């Protein structure tokens, strides 16, 4: 059983969804990013997505894009991502990496999978690599026991949902809205429908991302998904408070949200 | 013949995109293939080319310019004489008709020099589509005239301040818009890059340049040219003219990239001299990148060539040796720009001036090895230089620097609200 399979099985036993926290490596600098992933792991994140800062993050909204450029300006180097991954594992959460494809391609897919596994990384999420183009990555991931995680979107046909989930391991990243990353006042109503359509073609855990920023929204999503992914809202708190207290508070709030969805207050009642 | 198989040109091309866009790309590919087999569509496109764009564009021999190219014959394919002033209109009319055919109401586009933006805004006005054009903030300053032109035509121009604030960042922003609004929006991509089917589709819409040029040069000289020259940013005008000669093995194909301040300076946009295979903007191709796969900043005097990636078919033609790619520096391009102005009375786009500089080089080489017959070089003059007059005036010091400062101050003092509230 892979580390991701284990964490989702444990959450299922506990009758809750998993909290998946996204933070970019190297933001605002390497040292703070290491402290930040430790903080979210200790405050209740089950899985931590370590983002690779990239010059052309076309799936990301302004918060994550700005964080990526700041990390690059501060001198982030790709090999440092493994240091951050190691910190997540040491803090007791399951690390996965999220990266656009070109940095991985340039590093060498096989070498990347090997170094990711050696650092304790469980998987790689690829926002701009669909299984159709992923032959080299699937082989490398297989060889080093790393789980490939692909995205499904509201526009995915049933045929593509089936094909994509067949190539996923660990979990499936369900992009709940059409659009880029960023906190939204409402999580798209398409999320629940897309989860149901994906559920019909796979037994893998389904994690919903793009738009969740509060404990209340996390609870709403946890009612129908196996994992709740939160990114921009957490990244923003790191920018606002590098002391990381607000990051810990928000993570704890989100963790409470995913634990007991049935007890969550109704929409609009405040979190 | 196109080497494209399943959206690939050898190792290049493909679809490196968010899953959210795959359905739209499949819809587009199907609509495009269906349309190209439908005489109603192809007849309408041909009618627009003839009655609206003014095709066929002429082939102009430029003997006084050619004296500086070793005395070979130089023929210019005059895409600068198209409506909107560049080759871009060929592709835009095709894609705009496809947009209507797909039942979409809104087009978005990226632009560097503004030529593609102007062409898109024009077609949107013609066909009643909403239009948003993304343009790097640096480029909006370099090409202020084209920004005004787009706004006059009813398009919304969105300056993009992220990254290097040039063409690549405008593409990122257009992709983001497309991911969000793909249901009612077509991304009218302006060059032969991006995910499949864009490289093949845009090339097909521009192949009319090569088809016409081949017929015209045969008629004019009684034989095929020795060389065909074009500038290469994304590479659409080059693929357009190359496509007419790909199967003619005796015709050498040359693409000229932005050498900026020289390859050794690091300030350039020459992907085949300084880049490596990688993935950017949805396609596997040559990319200017560092050892971590981060895209490098580029530089060129020409906004339209200031781009770190290149169409995947060019990558294929480079690797197979069918086409040769060379850098041309800012200074060489501007010298050729001035030369064409002074010898032939034609002000070219600075993009096209890179091809002219390359043609001077190629012509001199051909002249050295020439036998009895005078070699023939065809240059794709992809656009006219109206938009570049300000850049050229500064480059050559044709205006008093103090006058420029004063003019800018006067502009800055004008109340902005008047322009915004004028109904445009």
Model description:
Chain A: It is an enzyme of class 4 (lyase). Chain A: The active site is at residues 49, 60. Chain A: InterPro entries: Aldolase_TIM (IPR013785), RibuloseP-bd_barrel (IPR011060), Trp_synthase_alpha_AS (IPR018204), Trp_synthase_suA (IPR002028). By secondary structure, chain A is α/β, with parallel strands linked by helices. Chain A has one domain (3-148, 213-256): Aldolase class I (TIM Barrel, Alpha-Beta Barrel). Chain A has twelve helices and nine strands. Chain A has a nine-stranded parallel β-sheet with strand order 5-4-3-2-1-9-8-7-6. In chain A, strand 4, helix 7 (135-144) and strand 5 (147-149) form a beta-alpha-beta unit. Chain A is globular. Chain A starts with a helix and ends in a 12-residue tail after the last helix. Chain B is an alpha/beta fold. Chain B has two domains: 16-51 and 88-197, 3-Layer(aba) Sandwich (Rossmann fold), CATH 3.40.50.1100; 56-85 and 199-390, Rossmann fold (3-Layer(aba) Sandwich), CATH 3.40.50. In chain B, strands 3-4-14-9-10-13 form a six-stranded mixed β-sheet, sandwiched between helices. Chain B has a four-stranded parallel β-sheet with strand order 7-6-5-8, with helices on both faces. In chain B, helix 2 (39-53) crosses helix 4 (88-101) and helix 13 (330-344) crosses helix 14. The longest helix of chain B has 24 residues, at 198-221. Chain B starts with 7 loop residues before the first strand and ends with a helix. Residues 416-424 of chain B have low confidence and may be disordered. Chain A binds chain B through residues 54-59, 61, 65, 69, 72, 77-78, 101-107, 127-130, 132-133, 150-157, 160, 164, 175, 178-180, and chain B through 14-24, 162-163, 168, 172, 175-176, 179-183, 276, 278-282, 287, 289, 291-295.
């Amino acid at each position: 059983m892979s580390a991701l399979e284990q964490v989702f099985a444990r959450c299922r036993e506990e009758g809750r969804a998993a909290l998946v926290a996204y933070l970019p490596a190297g933001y605002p600098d390497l040292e703070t990013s290491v402290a930040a992933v430790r903080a979210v792991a200790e405050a209740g994140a089950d899985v931590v997505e370590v983002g690779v800062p990239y010059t052309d993050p076309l799936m990301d909204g302004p918060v994550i894009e700005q964080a990526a450029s700041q990390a690059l300006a501060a001198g982030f180097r790709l090999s440092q991502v493994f240091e951050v991954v190691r910190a997540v594992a040491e803090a007791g959460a399951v690390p996965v990496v999220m990266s656009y494809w070109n940095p991985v391609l340039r590093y060498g897919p096989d070498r990347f999978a090997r170094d990711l596994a050696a650092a304790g990384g469980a998987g790689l999420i690829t926002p701009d690599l669909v299984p159709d183009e992923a032959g080299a990555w699937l082989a490398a991931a297989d060889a080093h026991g790393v789980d490939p995680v692909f995205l499904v979107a509201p526009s995915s046909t049933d045929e593509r949902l089936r094909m994509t989930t067949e190539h996923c391991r660990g979990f499936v990243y369900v992009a709940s809205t059409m659009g880029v990353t960023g906190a939204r006042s409402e999580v798209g109503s398409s999320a629940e429908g897309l989860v149901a359509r994906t559920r019909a073609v796979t037994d893998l855990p389904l994690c919903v991302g793009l738009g969740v920023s509060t404990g209340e929204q996390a609870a709403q999503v946890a009612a129908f998904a196996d994992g709740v992914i939160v990114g921009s809202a957490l990244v923003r708190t790191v920018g606002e408070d590098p002391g990381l207290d607000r990051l810990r508070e928000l993570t704890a709030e989100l963790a409470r949200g995913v634990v007991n969805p049935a007890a969550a207050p109704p929409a609009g009642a405040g979190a | 013949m196109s080497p494209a198989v399943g959206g690939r040109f050898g190792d290049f091309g493909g679809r490196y995109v968010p899953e959210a866009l795959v359905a739209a790309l499949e819809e587009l590919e199907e609509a495009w293939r269906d349309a190209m087999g439908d005489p109603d569509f192809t007849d309408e496109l041909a009618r627009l080319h003839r009655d609206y764009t003014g095709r066929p564009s002429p082939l102009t021999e430029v003997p006084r310019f050619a004296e500086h190219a070793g005395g070979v014959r130089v023929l210019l394919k005059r895409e600068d004489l198209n409506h909107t002033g560049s080759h871009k209109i060929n592709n835009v009319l095709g894609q705009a008709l496809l947009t209507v055919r797909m039942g979409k109401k809104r087009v978005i586009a990226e632009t560097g020099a503004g030529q593609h933006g102007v062409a898109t805004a024009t077609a949107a006005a013609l066909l009643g589509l909403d239009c948003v054009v993304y343009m790097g903030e640096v480029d909006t300053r370099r090409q202020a005239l084209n920004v005004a032109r787009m706004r006059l035509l009813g398009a919304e121009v969105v300056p993009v301040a992220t990254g290097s604030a040039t063409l690549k960042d405008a593409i990122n922003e257009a992709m983001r818009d497309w991911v969000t609004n793909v249901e009612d929006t077509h991304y009218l991509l302006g060059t032969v890059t991006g995910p499949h089917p864009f490289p093949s589709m845009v090339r097909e819409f521009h192949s009319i340049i090569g088809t016409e040029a081949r017929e015209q040069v045969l008629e004019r000289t009684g034989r095929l040219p020795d060389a065909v020259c074009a500038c290469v940013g994304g590479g659409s005008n080059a693929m357009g003219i190359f496509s007419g000669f790909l199967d003619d093995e005796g015709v050498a194909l040359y693409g000229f990239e932005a050498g900026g301040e020289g390859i050794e300076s690091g300030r350039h946009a020459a992907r085949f001299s300084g880049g490596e295979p990688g993935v950017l903007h949805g396609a596997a191709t040559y990319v200017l990148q560092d050892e971590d796969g981060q895209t490098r900043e580029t530089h060129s005097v020409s906004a339209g060539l200031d781009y770190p990636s290149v169409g995947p078919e060019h990558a294929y033609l480079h690797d197979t040796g069918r086409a040769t790619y060379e850098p041309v520096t800012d200074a060489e391009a501007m010298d050729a720009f001035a030369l064409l102005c002074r010898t032939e009375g034609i002000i070219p786009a600075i993009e096209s001036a890179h091809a002219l500089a390359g043609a001077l080089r190629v012509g001199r080489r051909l002249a050295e090895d020439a036998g009895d017959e005078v070699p023939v070089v065809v240059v794709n003059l992809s656009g006219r230089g109206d938009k570049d007059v300000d850049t050229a005036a500064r480059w050559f010091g044709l205006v008093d620097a103090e006058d420029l400062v004063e003019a800018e101050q006067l502009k800055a003092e004008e109340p902005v609200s008047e322009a915004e509230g004028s109904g445009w």
